[in-house]
Every structure is written in structure tokens, then in C-alpha cells.
Specification:
Number of domains: 2
Radius of gyration: 19 Å
CATH superfamily of the largest domain: Glycosidases
Structural class: alpha/beta
Shape: globular
Distance between the termini: 24 Å
CATH class of the largest domain: Alpha Beta
Number of strands: 10
Order of helices and strands: HHHEHEHHEEEHEHEHHEHEHEH
Number of helices: 13
CATH topology of the largest domain: TIM Barrel
Helix content: 25-40%
Strand content: 5-15%
Amino acid sequence: MNAKFYLVALSLVALAACAPKNGTSDDAAQNAYTCALQPFGINIACAEFGSRFPGVCNTDYGYPTAADLSYWHEKGLQLVRMPFKWERLQYELDGELNAGDLAQMKAFIAAADSLGMMVLPDLHNYCRRYHNGDHRVIGQEGIAIAHYASFWKQMAAELKDFDNIYGYGLMNEPHDLPDSIYWFDMAQAAIDSIRTVDNVTPIFVGGNNWSSAAKWRTESDTLKYLVDPADKLVFEAHCYFDADNSGTYKYSYEEEGGTPTKGVELVTPFVSWLEENDLRGFVGEYGVPDNDPRWLVTLDNFLDFLSLHGVNGTYWASGSWWDSQAVMVIPTYKGGDELPQVAILEKYTETKIAR
């Protein structure tokens, strides 16, 4: 099923509930995307791999392919978050996009579309770019915010005609910026730049402090003042359940402070903030290890809570480049026993209410 028709189908399910009380049918149709039941999905990570920049594609890093999709499609997941690196799509600041990497990205997006799956391209750069031998913060060392905004304009121009682009993920996990540099300014510049070429596709805005859901109110509250002329911003938080919220799960369930409701407790500040401000939200990363079944209960409760509040998300992570021992990772389609997290994930293919 073509992904465009999948999204339309979701929209029609919720259209009656979301139609304006005093509006026209055209008003309702325009709001259908926002009001639709939203899909849950998976991160397929590999294009951001490696420590060499730009590196050699298929040696230092690679792009996901059609082979990465079929397992998750069969499980009913209809959304893929696809991390990628700025340095690999654009070798020189303000330069042309790298045709080779762009072609591989587009091939994956087309493969997902053929299965009715949506793709969320995610710029996995942490408000930095590898430049002159080191990872440097945008706004310093010759990397201007305008360079970043211009890059997103070029990317949007290349991707906007695909039917299955779920949104543009502006930046993964902004963190540790100098006092004079603000993620808000970068995000607004990128929004303005994208909207010169694409007024249709939603834009996903990660939060400060590693996009922490638990710290959203104190670290990311001002993001509600971002302006999108298309009014299609989606705010993205991340939420891991271990003691330092890093997703490394180094210690036992007890030592990490695990409880059945820990995920719900950590994500509640973000979800409450969305509801208070009438904004759309998304949890781009969450995950649990498979070494203690109690974590599965935490994950189940977490996803049920999100679903009941109309907030969807993507599990971290899957992909053929991962080591089989990586924490939280589900490379099940490579063979072997199905990991226990999958049974939880396939329970949640879309939200239970529309927002």
C-alpha cells in the first residue's frame, strides 16, 4: 500500500472526531493530518555510524535498504526514523548535495513507500558538524546558522515530492551549547528556510539537553514560541528508563531504579506540556534491554500511556550494521530467535486517540 494512502486512511478514521465544530469540510480535510491516529515505528540506524568524516559509504557507514524494512512491515510498524549525517550529504558548506549519498537515501525512501511505510529523515548531528578536524558547534568556527538552514532548504527541495516523508527531523539531541548560542535560533532559521520550498511537510523539533522528556519543562519550554507559517511543528523528546537516562543500561534493573511505571513518570512532563500548549509531540527514541523481563513491563506501560495521549514514537533501534550484543538493538531479521521487545512493539502500531 502506498504510504500516501496509508496516511489518508488514518486521517479518515479520525476525521469525524477532529472536524471543526463550525467549520467546512475543507477545514476538516486540511486538519486531517494533525488529527489522524499516528503510527509507531522503529529507528533504522547506520547512516550516522562511523568516526571518519565524511568517510566511505558502505565501509565506514551505510544507508538502510529494502532488506531492513520487510521484517518491521510484517510486524505492522509503518514508520521509520532514519538518522543521517550533514557532513555526508554535503561535503562543503553551502555546496551541492552529495549525489551518491542522496541517491541511496532516496532509494530507501522509495522502498519504504512501496510497502506503505513512512520515513522521518533525522539529522543526527547534535547541533554540530565535523569541520577542520573536529566536531564544532553550529554558530562557531566558521559554521554559521545560515549554513545549517540552507542545508535543510536543499534537503527539503530534494525530498518534498515523496509521498511518504513523515516529516523533517531538524536535529537529533541538541546539547551542551555555549551560552551565546541557542538551539531555538537554529531551529527557527531552519523552519524559515524549509518553508521557502515546502509548506506541506511537518517539521520535527528536538528538545534541549539531549531532547530529555523528563527535563522538557525546564530545558525546552521556550520552543513553544517557534513560529511555523504552515503550523505543522511536531516536538520531539527522547526517553530512556535507566538511571542516567542514557539508554546504556549498564547495571541491573534494581540498580538502574527500574519500576513498572518509570517510563510513564519520565515522559509525563513532556506529554503534559504538549496538552497544556495544544501542540503535537513525538518520542523519537526509547528502548529497553532484553536481559530482564521487568523492563518489558516498563516499555509496555510507557507505550500504552503514549498511545492513550495521542503521542507516537520510534523505538531505538534496529539496523543491519549493529553488533548483535548492542543494548536495546533488535537485529532480529538477521536470523536467530526473535527478541522479546518485539512482542511489545507489535502491540502498538498506531495511537489509540488522535491529536
